[in-house]
Amino acid sequence: MFKILGKELLAPNIYQMEIEAPRVAHAAKPGQFIILRLDEEGERVPLTIADYDTDRGSVTIVIQTVGYSTSKLCEMNPGESIADFAGPLGQPSEFVHEPIEQLREKRILFVAGGVGTALQPTLLWTTSSSKGIVRADVIIGAKNRDTLIFVEQMKAVAGNVYIATDDGSAGFKGMVTALLCDLIDNQGKQYDEVIAIGPMIMMKFVALTTLKYGIKTIVSLNTLMVDGTGMCGACRVTVGGKTRFTCVDGPEFDGHQVDFDEAMRRQGMYRTIESRKAH
Q: What are phi and psi of 50, to 5 degrees?
């Protein structure tokens, strides 16, 4: 059993939880994920590792209540335990392996949306605080001011933080792609690489936008995963015309090579079943 050490409401229907999992915490790297089960009868839920603390032996996850299992998880409180917490799974971010000198020369832009924003502070810390990089910028996208998360954490480690909200209640009014174009076309910004993490549709259009500028783009896919070992095939995606498995080959891939339309179709396969179970 894995005890819940802390719980915090970040925004409507979005919670942060700290889970006691020493082995996972000591092995985790930025970009990886875990799969949890609430009980022996529960479904396997993949969640990105938002942060980890080796001293406390804990792993931080961020959950949005989008289905039956995530809703049940968010109803739990500190002191309660979940049955399974497997990880770390997947491949670490490529930043973990890049030479420091090479990273220092890059002009990097992180584009974060929704719960995907939770992963960005850890990646930023990896590329900024520990590596001495000062040119990493961030775009955070949200529906409105109330759904923004991790803004202050971003500002603590990023060069510049830009906000885009659908209704204009904070920062730029419009999609993250429109703000990205504005930064490049009107504000003279130049980037060597873009890291996009968020809803599948957001990552698709970020990749389409950066393609026209010729900017390398990495996306972290949150496609359906079941066993986390590549055996079930539920998380397969097409990248560069080849079948890849998100849970073992990813979750990070070249955004310009991903077949997003296929990935989104697969992602929606079980929504009807999940909706019936929730009710």
A: -80, -35
Indicate the pTM of the whole model.
0.85
Q: Which residue has the tokens 């931080």?
A: 60
Question: pLDDT-derived band of residue 106, with 50, 70 and 90 as boundaries?
Answer: confident
232 or 149, greater pLDDT? 149
Closest to 32 (Cα-Cα) out of 88, 98, 114? 88
pLDDT for res 99: 74
Q: Could you identify the residue written with the tokens 């803004």?
A: 151
Decide: 48 and 61 in contact? Cβ < 8 Å: yes
- Could you give the CA distance from residue 228 to residue 246 in angstroms, rounded to a whole number? 9
How far, rounded to the nearest angstrom, does the alpha carbon of residue 97 sit from its chain's CA centroid?
A: 19
Q: Before 30, cis peptide (omega within 30)?
A: no
> Three-class SS of residue 244?
strand
Six-digit token pair at 124? 């930023």
Instruction: Give residue 77's identity as a one-letter amino acid code.
Output: N
Cis peptide preceding 46, ω within 30 of 0 = no
